[in-house]
UniProtKB/TrEMBL annotation:
<feature type="domain" description="Arb2">
    <location>
        <begin position="15"/>
        <end position="305"/>
    </location>
</feature>
<dbReference type="InterPro" id="IPR048263">
    <property type="entry name" value="Arb2"/>
</dbReference>
<dbReference type="GO" id="GO:0005634">
    <property type="term" value="C:nucleus"/>
</dbReference>
<dbReference type="Pfam" id="PF22749">
    <property type="entry name" value="Arb2"/>
</dbReference>
<dbReference type="GO" id="GO:0031048">
    <property type="term" value="P:regulatory ncRNA-mediated heterochromatin formation"/>
</dbReference>
<dbReference type="GO" id="GO:0035197">
    <property type="term" value="F:siRNA binding"/>
</dbReference>
<dbReference type="InterPro" id="IPR053858">
    <property type="entry name" value="Arb2_dom"/>
</dbReference>
<protein>
    <recommendedName>
        <fullName>Arb2 domain-containing protein</fullName>
    </recommendedName>
</protein>
Length: 426
């Protein structure tokens, strides 16, 4: 008989967490390119075995994360471990705060998606066109500091808090938290193991076991309490920017009477970037009034950036969810993903929260005039009612297809779309 030992399984692939050793470099426009061919960006599919691709991506993300956090540190942000007082080797979540937070008169809190690493907005921008700064929170910090300088205010009067809703799965060997996807890229006993078992005692972080708990921990450890010198001053006003499910968790937390009584008077503004929490679920009257008067939401839509789409009560004529409880605006036709929304519309977001901060208590959202989307007519061809009968006027089969006519039609499309002649196209 044959006996297969554990040692006989193929080993897990190993990759260095260094861009240069992985074969990449950062060029003069801050984009990551291949050393072998500088015209190429990051290449995910390096092997037919998906485990090799996952392990390379894990190492690549680690290398990029080091660069991002070095840049955040150079911009004056330091790391704060939650729960407060946790040693570096024990389960904790690192967030970023301004080193001069105790002197701030205005503080911007950012809550991202629960699928992103600390400091990351979009890996599809970091690893491709756009570059590291643009695809990370470095661009947000730079934008806020630039705006502060243009207003003639001292840099230390602006505080920044970057929450970390993604890295809530503790990796004991690496002594750090990982995202839901990142946890599957950690080294395993072999490349054919199915994955790591989730052990609540080992992998969960106290007071930060879920995005909802993390949002609560950030507010209670930095805004409503915290260590001396590393907490938001009691007289500082707050601006909140939240993305996707991070926005949902922030709304759920603020929509509590006991929470609103402590923090309601300190909120300047709230920007919801494509969240999905319905205003019909809100129960706190104070928070509902705040959402109507001093909050706004952006959603993906083909209208130009800033086009009003719905009022606080929503817009029944609009295709899609609009019941945000605040005015809703289009993020513009170029935004195709939630993770790239803030990247695309950052100037508009920062300008608005700055406007609210300038006007103070006098600010109130203006009434918006909205219209509904154009609903397709019954005979319009859409993805929902497409059929060969509607496309060609009759059922296509070998007996009624005019091949010559069909070929001319396709050749015409090729000519118009790709600039090719019919001869070159075929």
């Amino acid at each position: 008989m044959f006996r297969r030992r554990w040692s006989g399984l193929p080993p897990d692939p190993q990759f260095p967490s260094d861009l240069t050793e992985l074969g990449y470099f950062v060029n003069e426009i801050d984009e990551i390119r291949s050393i072998a061919n500088p015209d190429y960006y990051f290449k995910y599919f390096i092997n037919k075995n998906e485990r090799w691709n996952e392990r390379q991506r894990f190492a690549f993300n680690e290398a990029v994360g080091k660069i991002i956090h070095e840049r955040l540190t150079s911009l004056g942000l330091e790391t704060l471990r939650l729960p407060l007082g946790t040693p570096p080797t024990e389960p904790h979540v690192p967030i970023r705060i301004s080193s001069t937070l105790a002197q701030a008169k205005r503080v911007v809190l950012f809550f991202g998606e629960s699928c992103q690493e600390s400091g990351v907005l979009s890996h599809r921008v970091i690893g491709r066109r756009g570059g590291i700064n643009k695809g990370s929170l470095v661009s947000l910090v730079q934008g806020l500091k630039k705006q502060q300088a243009e207003d003639g205010k001292k840099d230390e009067e602006l505080g920044i808090v970057l929450a970390n809703l993604g890295e809530l799965w503790w990796w004991p060997e690496g002594k750090r938290g990982l995202t839901p996807r990142g946890r599957h890229g950690v080294p395993m006993a072999s490349c054919v193991h199915l994955g790591r078992w989730h052990d609540k005692k080992v992998n969960e972080i106290p007071l930060n076991r879920s995005p909802a708990q993390h949002v609560k921990c950030v507010f209670e450890s930095v805004v409503l309490g915290g260590e001396e010198g590393k907490k938001v001053p009691d007289d500082a006003m707050l601006d909140i920017i939240a993305v996707g499910d991070g926005a949902d968790e922030v709304e759920k937390y603020l929509d509590q009477e006991e929470v609103w009584a402590k923090i309601g008077d300190r909120l300047n503004s709230f920007v919801n970037l494509n969240g999905n929490y319905s205003a019909t679920k809100l129960t706190c009257n104070g928070f509902k009034k705040f959402m109507e008067d001093r909050a706004r939401a952006y959603m993906m839509h083909n209208s130009p950036l800033g086009t009003p789409l719905a009022g606080p009560a929503g817009n029944p004529g609009m295709l899609g969810f609009t019941t945000y409880g605040c005015p809703v605006y289009s993020a513009g036709p170029t935004v195709l993903y939630v993770e790239t929304m803030l990247i695309e519309i950052m100037p508009a977001v920062l300008e608005w929260i700055c406007q609210v901060a300038r006007e103070g208590k006098n600010y109130k959202n203006e009434e918006v005039h909205v219209y509904g989307d154009e609903v397709p007519k019954e005979d319009d061809i859409t993805w929902a009612n497409w059929s060969e009968d509607k496309m060609w006027g009759e059922t296509m089969d070998d007996s009624n297809v005019d091949v010559e006519k069909l070929g001319d039609m396709v050749a015409k499309v090729v000519t118009e779309k790709e600039g090719l002649s019919a001869t070159e196209g075929w």
